[in-house]
Design goal:
single chain, alpha+beta, 19 helices, Prot_kinase_dom, Probable plastid-lipid-associated protein 14, chloroplastic isoform X4
């Protein structure tokens, strides 16, 4: 510990070699000086002067916190900036001066690293990622393409960060200021160090049970502990998002990113939102999106758990360390039913986005949809009434697909977004209003394959349906190829642990839709012509390309799967329609 009472002109941040002989010869000591610098001889440290009363109060608080953490010196030295002591001096005007003395690691903050153009190879060299280091995160190789290198580096940093934050939580403390600028990487021991520029090292850390009232103390302490841990985990989620998606380092884009949560949207729909905000129709053109899409979309799942709207739903440090996204291929992780359900849905969405529906892809999508229906988390109408309201974007139909390429229609129509909006008429009944919005563009001229500019329009269909409990029957005499392959999957050892069926069931629970009358309107930005046949041809072409269930909503007879991000509806002919929840406003389009 360094303690003393002396005066000399300080600088705000002074890096120097702490040597008692150097101190005595360089500065004029005006009062008694007592130094205990045996362990710090010839050690480079940082002298950080705290000027304001608030900064000094937090600096002294940091000393108290670090005294408690330093009991386990190995963990403390690995995952926290070392504080050697403090210097207190009395100024001529009667005010006191407080200076922290902490370790110097000659490294930038993580924010500074990510803002560099060559941050990936430089940070890899700083961390010296060899075979031993990647083995500690469950990986098997080093190097490789940029996506693999970036993903491996994210696992190294996130696991190190979570271990350090869990160290604080296990000692009854919350950091409360986890940000990229408060995280440094030490090239000496290749660990991340957490501290804050503004308030001193852990100066804003708070105890879980501090200032707890005497009445209902156990309940209050439990709520306080849960809220403080949830706040830290939310900060970790924002840090992970910036490390993976470099676009979020832009303040304007990050403001849109945070507005997604302030508006109360479910974090499970974050991928659908970011694809539009980042102006990527597919994830293949962005390294960060590819990282999150890997391993059955495990990265999106971890982000949604870290950034959950309800604090009670957020994942803890230990649970995050066991998440498949942070475990390399060397580690075998037994996925839960929620993770498998998430993976099936994520893979189905990615296949549907490719828009090249060959026969193997169509079979895969049908298998994934049927497996999702067996794992549906909501089978009762009251649960559907709570989850289904919202705007859903149409992704895929197992029915027929007719495009423009091999036909000569009277009107060239390019289909845009097709959405289904579900609203609950009243909380007192079980009736839903369904509105289908089909956006399209009527292309003129013969150069339509290269020029997609034309007259924009929208076809809107409205209907109301009453929902009630029901079941979807599997007819035994229908021995189709898809059902045979699905039965083989259910009999395999991989799926027995998750799906409680030894063979294809005869029926599954579903929500029956009882439709009412239908209204249909069409809107065009500009009139095509005075001929009514032109509008009739446009409607006919839209009906040809769009699944008939979205044109005639009365053909939707049951719902078989719904969660916070995906919806599956079945029609009268048995085809399935896959939707994803859309959280975009009109001004984002």
């Amino acid at each position: 510990m360094i303690r003393g009472l002396y005066q000399f002109p300080w600088r705000k941040n002074w890096t120097m070699s702490l040597d008692s002989r150097c101190l005595i010869s360089r500065f004029s000591i005006v009062s008694a000086l007592a130094l205990e610098v045996g362990p710090l001889y010839n050690t480079k440290v940082v002298l950080r002067r705290l000027k304001t009363a608030q900064a000094q109060r937090r600096g002294k608080r940091a000393i108290e916190v670090l005294k408690k953490l330093a009991r386990r010196r190995l963990m403390y030295h690995s995952y926290s900036m070392q504080v050697h002591g403090y210097i207190s001096s009395l100024m001529s005007n009667g005010h006191s001066s407080f200076t922290l003395v902490h370790g110097h690691h000659s490294s930038f903050s993580l924010r500074h690293w990510l803002q560099q153009s060559d941050w990936l190879p430089t940070l890899e060299a700083t961390l010296a990622l060899d075979e031993e280091s990647v083995r500690k995160v469950g990986d098997t190789t080093t190097g490789g393409p940029a996506v693999s290198r970036h993903s491996r580096l994210i696992r190294v940093l996130m696991r190190d960060l979570l271990i350090g934050v869990n160290y604080l939580h296990s000692h009854g403390l919350a950091h409360t200021e986890l940000r990229l600028e408060n995280v440094h990487i030490s090239p000496v021991d290749r660990h991340v160090k957490r501290f804050s520029y503004q308030v001193g090292i852990l100066g804003n850390a708070a105890y879980f049970h501090e200032n707890a009232g005497s009445d209902n103390a156990p309940e209050n302490n439990l709520d306080r502990r849960q809220m403080m841990i949830a706040f830290d985990m939310r900060c970790v989620g924002f840090m992970m998002a910036k490390m993976v998606l470099q676009e979020l380092m832009d303040p304007l884009i990050f403001t849109k990113f945070k507005s997604f949560f302030t508006k109360g949207h479910d974090p499970s729909c974050l991928r659908e939102y970011l694809l539009r905000v980042l102006e990527h129709r597919l994830s293949s053109g962005n390294v960060g999106l590819q990282i999150l899409d890997r391993n059955w979309g495990a990265g999106w799942n971890l982000l949604s758990l870290l950034l959950a709207n309800k604090p009670s739903k957020r994942i803890s440090c230990l649970e995050a360390l066991r998440h498949p996204f942070l475990c390399g291929p060397r580690w075998r992780v037994a996925p839960s039913k929620e993770i498998i359900r998430w993976g099936l849905g994520s893979t189905a969405v990615r296949i549907a986005e490719e828009y090249i529906y060959s026969r193997p892809q169509r079979r895969k999508l049908s298998h994934f949809i049927e497996l999702m229906e067996m794992l549906t988390p909501h089978s009762k109408p009251k649960h559907w009434l709570e989850v289904i309201p919202g705007k859903w974007r149409f992704l895929y139909s197992t029915g027929r697909h007719i495009g423009l390429t091999l036909r000569q229609p009277p009107a060239r129509v390019l289909i845009g977004d097709v959405c289904l909006t579900v609203a609950r008429d009243s909380k007192l009944n079980n009736r839903l209003s369904l509105t289908s919005d089909i956006e399209f563009t009527v292309m003129r001229g013969r150069n339509w394959p290269h020029d997609k500019i034309g007259v924009n329009g929208k076809l809107v269909g409205y209907s109301s349906s009453r929902i009630q409990a029901g079941r979807r029957l599997y007819l035994k005499e229908e021995n189709t190829t898809s059902q045979h392959v699905l039965a083989q999957k259910l009999s395999s050892q991989k799926w027995r642990k998750v799906i409680p069926f030894d063979e294809l069931p005869s029926s599954l629970p579903a929500v029956k839709l009882v439709p009412a009358d239908i209204d249909l309107t069409m809107k065009l930005d500009d009139p095509l012509s005075e001929d009514v046949d032109a509008a009739r041809n446009v409607i006919q072409e839209v009906r040809t390309q769009v699944p008939p269930e979205l044109f005639d909503l009365s053909k939707l007879i049951c719902g078989t799967y719904v969660d916070s991000r995906l919806l599956i509806l079945r029609s009268v002919d048995g085809s399935a329609l896959l939707f994803t929840r859309s959280c975009l406003d009109e001004n984002h389009r």
